[in-house]
């Protein structure tokens, strides 16, 4: 990447930096990641995330390290999970401790260019319970998480520590049990209701049966995944999403920069897994002010929208509707009632997200809300989007018909066109129903 591309990339990443700050990301790094030559770059990227105030919990695996400790011995597996005997337990723990040691040492080193000292904390945050006997098989010291002390973890995260969890835990009776590390990552992410659960894998992400990378996977597409390892990851991630994690990501540990690309670019590098469509059209709140400003500022500079100072947006934010995607405001519109009519103002869609019906959806929402408020028409003042509105039922009219209280604010220099669309009054039934179900409309209060 040359300097200019770096600059563009950095600027484009700003909204993601803002939306990820103070969020909790749970990451799974298998033991093979620790042995890979890209490991050092991953550690650097983790240090970078921590420096951006992202709260990190890392769960590590240790398969190759355990295999190394076992030597010629076998760790029996039923097809469902390993059986950990009393005799094998110390050998497995020794493999886990090798992996943990490497990870902890690497994180403690931070990143040479950043001069960061990372605080890494590990402890008995997860209580264990035995798997017990399944189908007649006693899994002995193989266990699962009985209880995850989220308060203790949150306290560490609040202290800016990276929480490092190994795949074992102790039961209240003091016995030790070995966990499936992938499952542990899912359980921890779900308990913390993390923003993201990120699995590092040996491939770029999840592939369909034709080996094409799936950029975004939802529950209904799960049947497209045939590879059993990928299916396990997709299942776990989706199950975490169903239990309160906002989204999951599967990315390639061998690829330098895959983590940053996934988190800070629009298209990502791997597969994003979500429960359902992650775009929401809703009434704006004070938390959206920065996002709205970020969206409209370039359009104001281009003269497409009237300049609105931050203070104005802050006080009038509840007039706005926003479409939020991935924590970012990607489109917005505002409704201002004037003497029985409503002005549709500040309609904007982020340039990367245009031509996908978002403008239309916002218009429909504004029309709906205007109807609920009993307004007879909505109008716009536009310099460059006249055809967009006329294609959607607006007609040009003389400035004289502008409501008086709005006319006195009209900027004759801008010479905007006035377009209006009549609104059919809702039936009494619809009105009652809408009021009952949509109490979030601020103009009603
Ligand atoms: C106008 C705007 C909000 C539309 O957003 P969007 O999410 O892309 O809207 P939609 O997907 O519903 O509509 C896209 C269609 O409108 C067309 N369109 C976009 N801008 C247009 C304009 N200024 N005039 C006429 N048509 C326009 C697109 O070509 C596309 O047409 P197609 O469906 O035939 O391909 C967006 O282009 C924008 O933010 N423009 C800059 C700000 C602006 O001018 N706002 C209006 C202020 S009054």
Automatic annotation (TrEMBL):
Pathway assigned in UniProt: Amino-acid biosynthesis; L-arginine biosynthesis; N(2)-acetyl-L-ornithine from L-glutamate: step 1/4
EC number: 2.3.1.1
Annotated spans, Disordered: 426-445
A molecular function GO annotation: L-glutamate N-acetyltransferase activity
Ranges in coiled-coil conformation: none
InterPro entries to which the protein is assigned, alphabetical: AceGlu_kinase-like_sf, Acyl_CoA_acyltransferase, Asp/Glu/Uridylate_kinase, GNAT_dom, NH2A_AcTrfase
Broad enzyme group: transferase
Domain N-acetyltransferase: 279-424
Record localization: Cytoplasm
Gene Ontology cellular-component annotations: cytoplasm
Reactions listed under catalytic activity: L-glutamate + acetyl-CoA = N-acetyl-L-glutamate + CoA + H(+)
Keyword Amino-acid biosynthesis: yes
Domain of life, per lineage: Bacteria
Comp. bias regions, Basic and acidic residues: 429-445
GO biological process, one term: L-arginine biosynthetic process
Pfam families, per database record: AA_kinase, Acetyltransf_7
Assigned keywords, A-Z: Acyltransferase, Amino-acid biosynthesis, Arginine biosynthesis, Cytoplasm, Transferase
Family recorded in the similarity comment: Belongs to the acetyltransferase family. ArgA subfamily.
Note in the entry: In bacteria which possess the bifunctional enzyme ornithine acetyltransferase/N-acetylglutamate synthase (ArgJ), ArgA fulfills an anaplerotic role.
Full protein name: Amino-acid acetyltransferase
